[in-house]
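PROTOCOL LOG
Step 1. Enter all chains and additional molecules of the complex.
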Amino acid sequence: MTDIFELLRAANPVPEPAPLAEGVSAPMLGRIGARDRRMSLVARVRTALTGSRVLAIAGGAVLLAGGTAAAVVALSGQPSAPPTGSLGPLPGVPKPLRYQIVAVPDLNGGAVGWCFFDDEQLPLGTQGGGTCGDVQLPGRPIVASDAGQGAALVQRPRPGELLHPGATPTYVSYAYLAFVTTANVTTVRVAPNLAIRTRPDAQLPNGYRIAIWIRSHLVHRKASSLPRGTPRAAHHLPPIANYTLPNPSGAVALNSSGHTIGLPGAPFAGLHDDATFWQAKHTSGTQPSLHSPPPGACEIDTSSLRDIQLFFGSVVQHVHGFPQLAGRTFLSCAETQFGARKGVGVDAAILLDAQRPGRLPDPIADAVTVRPGIVNAPGSALDQHKSLTARRIGDAWLAIEAGGSLQQRIHILDTLRACVHLGPSPCPEP
Amino acid sequence: MSAESALVEERFRELFVRYHADVAAYVARRAPASLAEEVVEETFVVAWRSFDRIRGDPLPWLYGVARRTLANQLRGIERRHRLIQQLASQPQVPQPEPLSDLVSPSLRDALLELSDADREALLLIAWEGLTPSQAARVVGCSSPAFRVRLHRARRRLERVLSLDSPVEPRLNEEQA
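Step 2. Run joint prediction.
Step 3. Record the structure below.
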């Protein structure tokens, strides 16, 4: 398989910037100034309306599915769905559909904290999303939150079926909310009519708990219900059911006495160390000029792995600690993504203790020792079976996220060379 | 006009001259030529009104505005089309299709199977030549979150393209 970016670049319909003709651009510039004066009042009205609408949604949040209010919920809270579970049961869907929410250290170079991914197995493939950069801050018991929805066809359509006016294809639609909290949170109140009781989970670090709400149902859409002239491509876009999800940033944490603790929501802390980005391939002048990993505080040397292709990565030049963090987590000091000729292979990173780099970092949650000094944590079984496997290198972890077998990942860890140098001079170049 | 406002206008003119070609190309890669002029103009109207709030590299900021403007235009066309149908049962009104100029139908279909967010993540890197940090500014998320989105979008596109002959992700033989 050709590298996907090469494929896309080759198909770029406008490979170079396309200046407007002088006869177009000069009058346009004149109109812009004139229109600004006309538009300023309209803009103010529009802003005010938008603001009040956002408040209305956040204040009176309800959960709707297919236009009907869903039956929820006692204030004491409904139990959290498990991190791995089933979507459904859904009548007429031949095989059980699953979802999975996993927590992994954020491997992006310079990043601090965790990523929380969701994967939903739908009849024709897996969908998913996630958040990254989640950390525990003082007074903020909700560490991470995520919300999303999606849909897909139940069966692969026959050629032209979706365009036939009489067709009524069936879709699976789903929506979810997920929260990760500190250990003292027993309930997350998301909206006046929705509270979710948290549950412990072995994959989470620091004794964190998780609260999940997930729903799915079938949607039928007649092809004839789409306006005539709807582009052919739009017939292939699945209809997402009419869920109105409450804004997860307004959620509050409750303790076992039912009292609110800390501040609401999971703020994005945006903590990171500056990292130098490099990319192995490029076609544009705006790409970085670095095409291989530069020297830095941490380095990952892939030269001992034969017949691989480097993709891109980041290297932190100078490591800083983040002592303001309330819970322990990792800082990714360098990251390199590479792979074999077929498919995307490996994401490798060096993880330090984020609060005090140079201190022995925490164990990787939910990981088991597979060989002295090497641990393995299962990833989402729904996402190409990628796992996180890591080797201790001094006061750091050399971690890889990859598919393949455990033996393959251990072989990569054994072969990769890594360097951590937290002193004033960077690592020597490989 | 005060000296200060003349200076601001001059700076805006420089911005327009320097970047309008990039913005025009961004729009042309995603919409028919008939829309491009209008979207470019709307983008720079917003830039002019927000000129004092543009910080750092303006190109990702401009792409972000162009992206939202384009989405609004397409929604407006769809609304107008529906209205025309309701009022007069008009015959087909041509609508712009995204990626209509893409040379490879199979790649176009594959891209259209992705979510808007996934597709945009890939195209900002491959077509606009942005770094992930710049592209994150365009779509309004953090750089780490964008990197995750990009990583996943690439996997998904690869998966869609290889639907007929699935290729398991694997490591090379030397590593096995």
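Step 4. Note key features.
The two ends of chain B are 72 Å apart (CA to CA).
Chain B touches chain A through 77 residues (CB under 8 Å).
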